[in-house]
Amino acid sequence: MEANRSTTIERYFHEIKRQFSCKETREILGTRYEISGEKGGGSILRLHIDGNIDMGIFQISSEYKYYFNGSKDSDLLIISYCLQGNKEIVYDKRHRIKKGDIVYFRPSKKYSCHFLDYESICFIVDLDSIKDILAKYKCEKYLFKWNRYIDSICKQDDIVIESAPNFVSTLANEIKCIEITNFFDYIKFKEMILNHFRYFLRLRENRCCLLNKNRDDMKYVWEAEKIIMNNLENELLIQDLADRLDISTYKLQKIFKETKGTTVYDFIRKTKIDESKLLLKDTDWPIICIAHNLGYENPSKFSSAFKDIVGLTPTEYRIRFRKRHRL
After folding, report:
1. Helix (H/G/I), strand (E/B), else coil: 49
2. What is the tens place of the pLDDT at every residue in 150-188?
């Protein structure tokens, strides 16, 4: 196990391996668990995304009911999107998941699952390890915000099941079909995965907006987010974005402010900075290359935007992150 990999996530996948009596093989970015024989058929591909986040691609068909042990001593957030088939979770009561559903789940006790021609992508997040990082650096204000934010997504012991917009299946299939042949594919893959993970969180964030806002407006916001995340290397103008959505810039700005509480420009800027953090952590690219990769022709503008949002320069952020992980 990698030194900085979450032991909670390791236990989760160890339980999967034990329950399904899997044959385990190493993959370029993780591990594949093959299911065969009396336990059913299919596979689970586990991909290592970050020390606190893994992703699984589940393809399972089985007549068996499997039992998993959640723990009160750990706080795990599981977000899954069902591409095909059905899944049943019994956790206090029976929950049925079908094609097109997104599930947000924070288990802390034993639960059972039954799969029928089930295919999904699943994010597994160790919330405790993230909170430990915030606590280590005495970020009480951010720790409070983090706890409140996570509880707004899904409270512990809750299962939230929501129907996703139709185009979410396109995002999920993009993840399934990506091929990695070189280092740049690898970086692009990690960017895509974390983009989609944030996208699923935003879908849940917007749940209240769906109750109070026009559904078509929310669709425009979701489509805009997808375009932005897939074009981070470009200087995306608000007029270009509005043209691609076939709406006016006024309407785009208005619905973004109403539903997201921010301007389109600020959202684009923050999303680019979030991506730059990954490149600063995972690569040795010079700052100028990272800036150009995110559509900043002038590296000083990138550094200024980064410090404005993060409170550190890109170089300071990279040094602090790497120093922390050497401890």
Report:
1. strand
2. 888 888 888 989 887 766 777 777 777 777 777 777 777
Average pLDDT rounded to a whole number, residues 245-266: 88
Say if residues 228 and 237 touch (Cβ distance below 8 Å). no
C-alpha 6/C-alpha 14 separation (Å) is 12
Strands 53-61 and 159-163: unpaired
Nearest to 270 by CA among 232, 320, 226, 224: 232
Other Cβ atoms closer than 10 A to 146: 16
CA-CA distance, 260 to 84, in Å (whole number)?
A: 31
CB atoms within 10 A of CB 62: 19
pLDDT single digits (tens) 5-58: 678 888 888 888 888 777 888 887 788 998 877 777 888 999 888 778 899 999
CA distance 313 to 298: 15
Report the first-to-last Cα separation within the chain, whole angstroms. 17
Q: Tell me the one-letter amino acid at 17.
A: K
Q: Is the pTM of this model over 0.85?
A: no
